[in-house]
Predict the structure.
Amino acid sequence: MRPRFTLSRQLAVERTWPFFIDLSVAAALLAGFYAILWIAKFWFSAAIPEIEIHLAPSHLPLYAFYSIVRIFVAYALSLAFAIAYGYTAAYNKRLEALLIATLDILQSIPVLSFLPGVMLAMISLFPSRQLGIEMGAILLIFTGEVWNMAFSFYTSLKSIPRELMEACEIGRFSRLQRLFQLELPFAAIGLIWNSIVSVANGWFFLMVCEMFPVGSRNYRLPGLGSYLQTAASEGDFRAVTWGLVAMVLIIVVTDQLLWRPLIAWSDKFKFETVESEERVTSSVLHALRNSRVVATIERRTFRPMSEWFYNSLAERKRKHPPQAPRTESRRGVTAIYIAVGLVALAGILFAASDAVRMLRDIHRSEFFTLLAGAGLTFLRVNAALLFASLWTIPVGVAIGFQPRLSHILQPIAQIAASFPATALFPLILLALARIGVSLGIGSVVLMLLAAQWYILFNVIAGAQAIPSELKEIATLFRFSNVQRWTTVILPGIFPFLITGLITASGGAWNASIVAEYFQLRGHTLMTLGLGAQISAASDHANYAVLLAGTMIMALMVVTINRLVWRPLYHLAETKYRLD
Amino acid sequence: MTDPIIQARQVEKFYAQSRDARIQVIAPTDLAIYPGEIVALLGPSGSGKSTLLRMLSGLSRPSGGAVLWHGQDVASTQPNVSIVFQSFALFPWLTVLENVEAPLKARGMEVMDRHRRSLKILDTVGLDGFEAAYPRELSGGMRQRVGFARALVVEPEVLFMDEPFSALDVLTADNLRGELLELWQKKTIPTKAIFLVTHNIDEAVFLADRIIVLGRNPGHVRTDFRVALAQPRDRKDSAFTALVDYIYKVLTQPDVVPAEMPVIAGGRRIRDQRQMRYEMLPHARPGGIAALLELIIDFGGRTDIYRLADELSFEIDDLFPIVEAAQLLGFAKIEEGDAAITPEGRAYAESEILRQKELFRQAAVDHVLLLRQITRALANKSDHSVPEEFFLDMLDEQFSDDECRRQLETAISWGRYAELFDWDDSRRRFVLAEHEHEEIQDRAPEPAK
């Protein structure tokens, strides 16, 4: 029997808390409704290609709101696409190899290469409404967010244990029940971590997707990215500071209100047999779980809806008992596949030959410039990776070896990593210009800024994963510093370092597009490099060069992945595995 | 006799390798499951026990032949069956109750009915009060109870079990076996037949009304007989141990048709499809072989295999590879279910380590074709190294892909121990032992697996 605390203060607090929580949940719902109305009003207003940006801080909340909506609409699209794509790739044996190869290539195409095409298509779809320009920007952000999520979902599906699939089959699960009870839960943790990376990528590109020229026309959307760029161009450092503060706030709030609750919630999807000691906790999740409003909504709407859903699926299944093996219809399906494949092949060949014809427009000297640019960008990317490794490895190991330090620093580093480097670009470029560093060198700094966090995180994780016995042996046998690093630390963090470098290399290549070509104070800063050439071609609607540059970059990225990263990854997986 | 619930007619399973080469996993087999019996399927690893279970339950389609469910093709009906899995196969993100409800949900049962039935079955298997727990909060035995509850809640006509007790500790497994038997005998559950795949002979004799023993390469029925012992059975009973001993004898003599027990329906034996070029290497470690030989010497040079299993508390899948390896190398002989040591075996077991390696090397080269080939190929190559693909290609004609890998792994382990050759894992190549010694002298020792 529980003692009764009728007059206890503690209990009063305990009793009133859910009420406040309910109130805030209700307020949040109302605000969400209002936000949707507002966005709809804006999107369906007449199109204004170049909106004037006000630098007064009072306009900042609205700009931030528009940017956030873009990021999350693009994210929602990415999630839906990733699930559909991953599912198809995992279960359609005929298409699997093709879809995965396509994903590999799409992943290596820089976002800005899509810009002119996507923009023109969207604007001609909704010529008189703001929606067209908005959709263009959103789709661009989408291309920066989607690929890693699709990969993550695909690999999760492929690693579902066979017996769980069999349990679904013998239990006569419908495809949808299997999706909700097995596949999505199994993939949840991977999807959530990739979502964090994706949204960070989204912010990175949002900064450049809100202000851009296509051919002779300039576009500017109201948002945080355009605010920051305008402020930097006009040299208004107060406004720049306000913008950066807003950005930091958004990232902290997203982390606290979205990612932490999600990570804490996803703990139940861990596919492990033992209970883990260390868990992420989130007070927001705790509050939501204890909220009466949320519970009522769940009980009154979601549960009956899902019941109805499963029921109708099961019913339908009963009406159509499975037929005997249909070899004939299978043959029909094969025929359809072949027909569709042939049509697609014809289309692809036609488009490819057209593209090649377009490439003929490129002057030979232009082509050599492209190659020279490719070489320079390659050097810059690797220089950025090298410098990033030089500082992140010692620092990361130092943090990883000291649990208390890592406990304090990791959340901070996580937020720093989510901060889009592109938001700082204008400031850094101005600073570099003041001390007289050219963009050729400066762009390496910008790439470094974009790539270093991936390495740092992985090194910290790697250092933490080194068993303490190995460190004790090094102390016991009085290893010299050099020996410690070469026999214990570097091999120990190797697999993590490689993972970090692979991601960082992708990040640096993508950053080259924005780092080598930047518009500041009304004029364009650029240096020789593939990224600059692609950006310039996109700005000047020079489609032949854009295509050639994109192809060269995709080819280089894919080749480097195959020749360098994949073998290194294999080595890390086999020789340097700690288990 | 009544009509069978499930009848397999000439079912077989093979994987097409190329147009004319295929790997036969299960030879054409006849099998039937009748109402009122617990059938246990026994066999060494690689005999296709699980594959057969999946074909009978309708999970996987046979490459040839047909599985009939009450006389109808299983692919065109929805047989009411369930499976209890070795790994439990529970959804860790669903509570115990949600796990049990999931198959009912799939059948579109109303919420209240579903709850009532699930709670009742949870009560039956002794999980009352655990409805809201997540599987990870439960012990292995409790988890398998959830597995049983999930399988039984749909009131299956045939309950399939794929080594359901082998992931549990001995006491828990014993307890659960007893409870299952009680549910079955008291007819608490409406299930008409149970089909159990196991590699535990003791378990089969304890539970089953009928035992089917499979042979391998390819999988085929070696013998199929009724167990006439009355329930409850006593493991100490002489009839019980005699039956266990008999099954050991059958399993240890792969080439002899078992004769002592009556062979009933479907007990047909099929000869190997083609002449084997490679003998299948049993996956045993050299250290295990030496330990086994010493144990046989302790037993006076000759002993019952099941006594060995008992002494080591090994199940047949653990013990057989070691016994077979000893036999293959000429260190031991198997006669009538007894293992007897040979003079070579005695010499091997009683030597010191360097001499042991020498004897092992001699025996390996004499008796194992694959090792002989690897050594010869290495000697002939000018750089004294051969990639694994070379041997994988040769093994490929005879074994499945997975088995090829395992064969090579075993060959590597034996060859390294015998110092016949070494293996470079990063380049995936065989290299000659002395040759590599000169190259890398201070290389760190391989971590133990």
Observations:
- The radius of gyration of chain B is 25 Å.
- Chain B has two domains: 6-252, 286-439.
